[in-house]
Amino acid sequence: MKKTLDKILGSVLVFLMASIVIAVLWQVFSRYVLQSASSFTEEIARYLLIWIGILGAAYASGQQDHLAINILPPKLNEKNRIKLRIGINILVILFAIFAMIIGGGNLVYVNFELGQSSAALAIPLGYVYMVLPISGALIIVYKVIELANPKKYLLS
C-alpha cells in the first residue's frame, strides 16, 4: 500500500511542479516578450506552490525525509528507540488530526460558506485550502503504516 501511495503522490507532485514551471515561464514570457503581464499565471503559481509545499510535506513524512533532530535516539537501545518512534508517530497523528484535518477542514468549510473566491481565477478559495485536510489524511496513513511495523522505520 505504501508503494502505491508513494507512486500516486509522487506523480501528483511531479505534475504540480511541471504546471508551476509552465505557469512561471508563461508569466516571464508574457511580461518581458509580449510586454503584457498575464494576470492569472501569478495566482496559479501561488496556489500551486501552496499545494506543492503541503503535499510535499506529507510525501516527505512518508519517506522519513522530514526535518528531525536526532540527539536522543542514538543513545537509546533498540527497544526504547521503538517506543520513541511510536510516541513520535502518535504525536504526529494527533497534530495531523487536530491541526490539518479539523482545522483545515474548518478553513475549507468557512471559505465555501462565505463564498470567497480568488481575484484573477474566480475559483472558490476552499479548493485552495483543501490541501490541508488531504495532506493531514495522507500523513495519518503514512504514520499508521509506520506504526504497523515500527522496527522497519527505526530512528538511527
Automatic annotation (TrEMBL):
Subcellular location: Cell inner membrane
Main location: membrane
Topology of the protein relative to the lipid bilayer: Multi-pass membrane protein
Keyword Membrane: yes
Record keywords: Cell inner membrane, Cell membrane, Membrane, Transmembrane, Transmembrane helix, Transport
TM ranges: 12-29, 44-61, 82-109, 121-145
Stretches of the chain forming a coiled coil according to its record: none
Database matches in Pfam families: DctQ
Keyword Oxidoreductase included in the entry's annotation: no
Every Tripartite ATP-independent periplasmic transporters DctQ component domain range: 20-148
UniProt-listed PANTHER family: 2,3-DIKETO-L-GULONATE TRAP TRANSPORTER SMALL PERMEASE PROTEIN YIAM
Family designation: Belongs to the TRAP transporter small permease family.
Protein name: TRAP transporter small permease
Species for this entry: Leeuwenhoekiella parthenopeia
